[in-house]
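ok new one. same drill as before - structure tokens go in, u give me an amino acid for every spot. 398 of them this time. try not to just spam alanines like last time pls lmao
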């Protein structure tokens, strides 16, 4: 047996103590670096102000920038989409959320919900009309499923679509819809006599409106709104022809949840790096607080949970690239990584003390954002029951 001399090995990188970078290919690292470079230039200098002011003033310019970068629908093929791997898409989500969950939500809703719905379930005409513009960031999409009284139970949605001659007429309300206030197109799901069907609704259609939801204390850099459908008349060609029943919207949610598995790690990484740097600079009792055992325990525990979450994300990404990823496995990733990322942010906040609640540091912003991420695309309770059913064969939903 060969015995390695530890002194000949490269030193530990405190930003990557488990050498997780060795799991990635050079192409994956290049894509990650390209996303980071653009975010550092166009978003990082402004993100705290956008959060504090409750919106991104140059949202269309930013969306076009993201389109030029190739991250909008980047895991889809054709129609101007980049056709990247699931792991490459995950790394982009991680970097986006390291800046802010609102930016990852913008990209996720655009690519994994609105674009994926059209790409997977739409007609060729719908794909040609919308996907190239959405991939370029020239058109913004949103996804209308959640309702005021139908969140975790989408089967109870009240929005209805009825036939009127050769047209469809939609009536109802959707709630908590990211991108809605500035979306050019909405994918809306409604009950019909044929079951749940999806519709592509241009924002200018008479009877359609998307008032913004204000007074949020989370995801403040992301615009959230209602979708109000007051007798919205659409041609037959507006229906997504391949989607019948809840399989359509749930497949889209699964795509978005996969991005969250990675994205939550970005908020966690940013908080860990902030807390570690702060602990090395903050002097108390004559030495940096990084020298105290309890601070080191916090940093060690945060790093361990991040490492485990990252390993899980890479594993799920490799399975997705091999077409072997089950929805229940995505639930495992979403449940674990968001829950642990939120705890990491809370712990990082304690290291910063009173400074932890200031927007001069990103930690409280990440923490507040993750409170929403914990809830959307399936609450922690719902993903717990998905895993519970997989483990026992018994459904506890009803």
């Amino acid at each position: 047996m060969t015995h390695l001399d530890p002194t000949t090995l490269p030193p530990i990188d405190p930003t990557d103590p488990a050498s997780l970078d060795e799991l990635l290919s050079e192409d994956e690292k290049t894509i990650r670096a390209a996303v980071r470079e653009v975010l550092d230039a166009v978003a990082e200098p402004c993100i705290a102000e956008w959060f504090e002011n409750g919106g991104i003033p140059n949202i269309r310019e930013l969306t076009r920038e993201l389109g030029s970068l190739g991250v909008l629908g980047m895991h889809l093929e054709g129609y101007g989409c980049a056709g990247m791997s699931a792991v490459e898409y995950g790394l982009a989500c991680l970097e986006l959320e390291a800046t802010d969950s609102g930016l990852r939500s913008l990209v996720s809703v655009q690519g994994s919900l609105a674009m994926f719905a059209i790409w997977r379930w739409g007609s060729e005409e719908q794909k040609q009309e919308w996907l190239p513009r959405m991939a370029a960031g020239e058109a913004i999409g949103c996804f209308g499923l959640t309702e005021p009284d139908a969140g975790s139970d989408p089967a109870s949605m009240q929005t209805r679509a009825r036939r009127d001659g050769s047209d469809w007429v939609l009536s109802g309300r959707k709630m908590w819809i990211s991108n809605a206030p500035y979306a050019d197109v909405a994918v809306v799901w409604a009950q019909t006599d044929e079951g749940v069907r999806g519709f592509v609704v241009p924002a200018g259609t008479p009877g359609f409106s998307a008032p913004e939801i204000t007074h949020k204390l989370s995801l403040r850099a992301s615009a959230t709104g209602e979708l109000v459908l007051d007798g919205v008349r659409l041609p037959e060609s507006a229906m997504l022809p391949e989607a019948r029943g809840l399989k359509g919207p749930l497949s889209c949610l699964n795509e978005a949840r996969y991005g969250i598995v990675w994205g939550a790690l970005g908020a966690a990484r940013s908080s860990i790096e902030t807390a570690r740097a702060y602990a090395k600079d903050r002097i108390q009792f004559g030495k940096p607080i990084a020298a105290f055992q309890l601070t080191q325990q916090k940093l060690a525990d945060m790093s361990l949970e991040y490492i485990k979450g990252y390993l899980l994300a890479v594993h799920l990404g490799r399975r997705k690239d091999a077409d072997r990823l089950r929805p229940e496995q995505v639930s495992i990733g979403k449940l674990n990584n968001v829950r642990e990322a939120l705890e990491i942010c809370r712990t990082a906040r304690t290291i910063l003390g009173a400074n932890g609640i200031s927007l001069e540091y990103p930690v409280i912003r990440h923490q507040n954002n993750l409170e929403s991420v914990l809830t959307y695309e399936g609450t922690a309770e719902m993903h717990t029951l998905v895993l519970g059913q997989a483990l026992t064969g018994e459904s506890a939903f009803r």
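The chain has a mean pLDDT of 96. and btw The longest strand covers residues 167-178.
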